[in-house]
User: Fold this.
Amino acid sequence: MTCTCAIAERYAHTYVLILCSHTLCIPHAGLPLIRQGFCLYISLTYGVIMDYISAIKEFGRDANPFFREMDIAIVSYEHGSATLSMLITPKLGNGAGWLTGGMYAALADEAMALALVSSSSLDERSTTISLSTQFIKGIREGIIFAKGTLIRKGRQIAFLEAIVTDESGLVLARCQGSFLIMPK
Assistant:
């Protein structure tokens, strides 16, 4: 039984089923797949379950529905660090034409999450439990970048920070996040 949020899409001759956090159970090839709180990637061609990093490697930004929707690009990621970029469009502006603050925070949160996942084991999952953003400067057009960095990772809590900049490197916002680490 799955919710209507499950999406089946075709990428490079491989059908991939992306299951949202509302998914309860998907029987596939005799495997009951029960997961909550994160996306699960299943290659219907190969019948394998992919972790998020493997899905990012294979499908790039298409592995994350939010990245696709908001036109977010993965610039880089490695152990404990990740950089994302996003083109500012008029639909992301507030009533005064500035990029809405929520987009700074969302991009920073995603960069921190990818930085954490890139340093986590396959038997761990995580979720944001606290996010604080200091807005320094507004922007109306161009591309913004968020670089997430792992500061400290304990057994149950990880601390990360992100810096949001414009194309010239001017700092627009600083974010700090705490993430809960749980077993899968």
Remarks:
- The chain has three helices and twelve strands.
- Residues 64-183 form a domain with the Thiol Ester Dehydrase; Chain A fold (CATH 3.10.129.10).
- The CA atoms of residues 26 and 33 lie 5 Å apart.
- The longest strand covers residues 171-183.
